[in-house]
Amino acid sequence: MFIISLDYHGSLDAIDAALPAHVEWLRDGYDRGLFLASGRKVPRTGGVIFAVGDRETIERKLDGDPFKQTGLATYDLTEFEPTMVADGLERLRQ
């Protein structure tokens, strides 16, 4: 499992202009079963995505993000193995 932390590098106006394309990119990740949850950081300095899959697949997916392609965000990819999970999230346990 991966925690992907996005940091914005641009004005919020530029982020908002690219947001519809980013949301479509996110939807594709959910449709492909890669993404489990995503949302904005508070305060709004970036975002966070929980993802599953192998590192190479996740890295390729990140390369297609419009935020990355336009230089509006950078990414920190952290892999971890969940050993304890809340009820209902058992499929995440390694």
- Give the overall shape, derived from the CA principal axes: globular
Strand-residue proportion:
25-35%
Work out the helicity level.
Answer: 25-40%
The Rg value, from CA coordinates, equals 14 Å
- The tally of helices reads 3
- The poorly predicted ranges are none
**Kindly state the mean pLDDT as a whole number?**
95
How many extended strands? 4
- Give the CA-CA distance, first to last residue: 9 Å
Give a description of the structure.
With 94 residues, this protein is of the alpha+beta class. The protein has a domain at 1-43 and 64-76. Helices cover 35% and strands 28% of the residues. It has helices at 12-31, 55-63, 66-69, and strands spanning 2-8, 35-40, 46-51, 73-79. It has a four-stranded antiparallel sheet with strand order 2-3-1-4, with helices on one face. It is globular.
